[in-house]
Write a structure and sequence with these properties.
The chain is of the alpha/beta class. 41% of the residues lie in helices and 15% in strands. It has eleven helices and nine strands.
Length: 268
């Protein structure tokens, strides 16, 4: 199997392990990625996931060697979406790269070294946050081969970096170095080469310390608001107030007792 899953406490690490193909994903690997993230979301002991590739590459995209002979009709039918699908129903849908049509209840961090290009870039965009090594890069490299973005790239990229920048990257397919990724919001953190996983683990540990119901509610509200008008989005957000009963009142009591003053996160 070219997908490895490891649990480190309350953090799940999903690693693409196919270095001979720069971690390109074939249909079997896409299925394994899909199943790994379904399992993560259903595991009550897991709070945050990290998606990474074996050192030197995050993911070079869909395996074009596997696709060079043409994909059969079963493959197209399996990934077909009707116009009514909104991405938020309770029926898990698999994308060509695996988990890219899932809306999970918990956050995922991409730990990126080397290329995250074509479908690999779409995998990174699916994640909530992206940690990139300084020599890492992204790009719509599939532009060269007549392969479209069909795994959320044309939606998620404009939402993350804005329409103008997204059109530049989508139309030209150019390489986007880590420094530019950080400058335009495509990357959330930069780190030294060889340290993407360690940096992502540190970030995951920070997220795992917070009261989880409140953080997850805020995350899902931010995701859902894209398809809602303002009154609906505000109503959806207000539903999260229910988490105050279980977490917020206890947190307020800790603050009242003197903890967490002046931005101190050490005793939360």
């Amino acid at each position: 199997m070219t997908i490895r899953v490891e649990n480190r406490g309350d953090v799940t690490i999903v690693t693409i392990d196919r270095p001979e193909a720069r971690n390109a994903v074939d249909p079997a690997m896409a299925d394994a990625l899909f199943r790994a993230f379904i399992a993560f979301d259903r595991d009550e002991s897991a709070k945050v996931a990290i998606l990474t590739g074996v050192p030197g590459a995050f993911c070079a995209g869909f395996d074009l060697k596997a696709a060079s002979g043409g994909m059969d009709e079963t493959w197209y039918a399996k990934h077909h979406l009707d116009a009514a699908f909104d991405g938020l129903d309770d029926q898990p849908r698999k994308g060509p790269m695996g988990p890219t049509r899932l809306t999970l209840s918990k956050p995922v961090i991409a730990a990126i070294s080397g290329p995250a290009v074509a479908g690999g870039m779409e995998l990174a965009l699916w994640c909530d946050m992206r940690v990139m090594e300084r020599s890492a890069y992204m790009g719509v490299y599939c532009r060269r081969w007549g392969v479209p973005l069909i795994d959320g790239g044309t939606m998620r990229l404009p939402r993350i970096v804005g329409h103008g920048r997204a059109m530049d990257l989508i139309l030209t397919g150019r390489q986007v170095e880590a420094e530019e990724c950080l400058a335009i919001g495509l990357a959330n953190r930069l780190c030294e080469d060889g340290s993407a996983l360690a940096a992502a683990l540190e970030l995951a540990g920070q997220l795992a310390r917070f009261p989880q119901a409140c953080m997850r509610a805020d995350r899902l509200s931010a995701i859902a608001q894209w398809s809602l008008d303002l009154p609906q989005a505000l109503g959806n957000e207000w539903a999260s107030a229910e988490t105050f009963r279980s977490e917020g009142s206890a947190g307020a009591a800790r603050f009242a007792s003197g903890k967490g003053r002046s931005g101190d996160f050490s005793e939360i």
